[in-house]
Write a structure and sequence with these properties.
Layout lengths: L1 H22 L4 E7 L16 E9 L6 E2 L2 H8 L1 H5 L7 E7 L5 H9 L1 H17 L4 E5 L6 H25 L5 E6 L4 E2 L2 E2 L2 H7 L2 E4 L29 H10 L7 E6 L1 E7 L11 E4 L9 E3 H11 L4 E3 L4 E6 L2 E5 L2 H13 L4 E5 L8 H11 L1
Parallel strand pairs: 1-2, 1-17, 2-4, 4-5, 5-6, 6-9, 9-10, 10-17
Antiparallel strand pairs: 2-3, 7-8, 11-12, 11-13, 11-16, 14-15, 15-16
Helix pairs in contact: 4-5, 5-6, 10-11
Bound molecules: 2-acetamido-2-deoxy-beta-D-glucopyranose (2 copies).
């Protein structure tokens, strides 16, 4: 009798400990900080995140060395120290490349042993000299068979070099990640899932920009839906393809956009999903069709309109006049993070911290993941 009670008591303690260590955010609550956003590093509420990606370092086209532009050097140098003030455990990674970088330079670098070496050694020394705990490769995208093989070779050599550096420096190995295409299949070309799974610590799957006013058929569409019927690009199909290709769910990070895309409607009264449109809307806060979550909230306030949540596909949208915006509000973000949890993924990341509005989406994501 007594021992049963004691056993129960100990199981209770163990359960409590398990619960609190899970609550202490195992996995990833990630965010990119983009220097181009102008958002001050010191304003980042790092208590809401476990990993922060500092974007972007550049790849020099002639030397194939990774460099930090002079305008970013001071901010990058103190980045880790600054964000760790509010959260000493937050991990920082230096992200290289990005959607605005020249993909041909990455392809050329990855194609030859010497240029790969240049990338690898310069990236590692730059991470160390700037106090980052890891590196994140954002090559958008390796897009033919040769480039995909080079990408695979690059990741293999990068990991070996990071291990070697760790042995010689006596420091924990630099974390290595890559931001990758939404699906394990790039328009018919399989990506090297098994190599990436063994060489990288995780992959950031870019589950956004599925539809936008500049490249989808001229109709409104959810830019980053979680679900969709066959033929509609969606996040679940992409994540499922990565898992089916043999990539472990526990190393997949689901990407969430803190921005939306704005279309110009043909008829302002036909303003649902898949309504006829005429390219990108223009207006306050809209930049080439894109608009931050903060900008969307201002749009809603100025036009006194509310957004609609479609829980079938998981997207929000809002319109006023002929401007129609598809995006992720709190409901979409919560549904995606809950999905990531249920699927046993490593976690989620968002692009990008400066687009949030008073931490609304960051906080929704964090509490959904930890709660
Ligand atoms: C959409 O319509 C606009 C205006 O008619 C046109 O300029 C644009 O090329 C069209 N975009 C697509 C993707 O068809
Ligand atoms: C920002 O969020 C906090 C916490 O939810 C709230 O107390 C505060 O009023 C918000 N500030 C603004 C300007 O909306």
């Amino acid at each position: 009798m007594g021992s049963t009670i004691i056993n129960l008591f100990f199981s209770f303690i163990v359960l409590l400990q398990l619960h609190s260590s899970a609550g202490q955010s195992s996995g990833m609550k990630g965010i990119y900080w983009f220097s181009g956003s102008g958002f001050p590093v010191s304003d980042i509420d790092s208590s809401l995140f476990t990993h922060i990606f500092c974007a972007f370092a550049d790849l020099a086209p002639n030397t194939f060395q990774v460099t930090i532009s002079p305008s970013n050097s001071a901010k990058f140098k103190t980045f880790t120290q600054t964000v760790q003030r509010k959260n000493p455990n937050v991990k920082t990674l230096l992200s290289i490349g990005g959607g605005g970088a020249n993909a041909d330079t990455f392809a050329a670098m990855a194609s030859q042993p010497d240029s790969r070496k240049s990338f690898i050694s310069s990236s590692i020394s730059l991470a160390r000299s700037n106090g980052f705990l890891g590196l994140d490769l954002d090559w958008e995208y390796p897009s033919n068979q040769n480039q995909i093989s080079s990408f695979s070779t690059l990741c293999t050599e990068w990991r070996a070099a990071a291990e070697k550096e760790s042995q010689s420096s006596g420091k924990p190995r630099l974390l290595l990640s890559a931001a990758v295409f939404r699906s394990s299949n790039y328009y018919g070309l399989p990506l090297p899932a098994s190599v990436l799974a063994t060489k990288l610590d995780w992959i950031n799957v870019m589950c956004y920009d599925f539809y936008g006013p500049g490249w989808s058929p001229n109709s409104t569409a959810p830019p980053a839906a979680l679900f969709g019927s066959a033929g509609q690009v969606n996040c679940d199909a992409g994540i499922t393809s990565w898992i089916q290709s043999g990539f472990p769910a526990s190393k997949i990070v689901l990407g969430i956009p803190f921005y939306g895309w704005a279309w110009r409607l043909v008829n302002q009264n036909n303003n649902g999903l898949y309504a006829p449109a005429n390219g990108a809307a223009t207006g306050a806060g809209i930049d080439d069709g894109a608009i931050t979550y903060k900008g969307i909230n201002a749009f809603k306030e100025n036009n006194r309109v509310n957004s609609v949540y479609n829980g079938m596909v998981v997207t929000n949208y809002v319109s006023s006049g002929t401007t129609w915006i598809g995006y992720d509000d709190k409901q979409s973000v919560a549904a995606k993070v809950a999905y990531a949890k249920k699927k046993g993924l490593f976690g989620y990341f968002a692009w990008q911290v400066g687009a949030d509005d008073n931490w609304t989406l960051s906080r929704t994501a964090s509490t959904t993941w930890s709660g």
